[in-house]
Amino acid sequence: MKDFQYFPRTARSANQAKNMDTPHSAEQMRDNLLRMVNNEYSYNRYPDWPNLAHINVDRFVQNNGQQLKKLLCDLK
Description:
Structural class: mainly alpha
Organism: Heterorhabditis bacteriophora
Protein name: Mediator complex subunit 6
Strand content: 5-15%
Shape: flat
């Protein structure tokens, strides 16, 4: 299985990427990526990012992506 890389906002070089397993489904990849973004937000609380505190990743997985769709619509 090939890895994909997540670059945190503060990354300044390729060696600061976080390697993530590439799952066999797009849904699992989305969920993994959402966890990475949510974890980064929880730790850093960037002032110019929207409030992501209301997103519960496990509930998001159960709701089949409805929260992410709403968040993306709210950002437009």
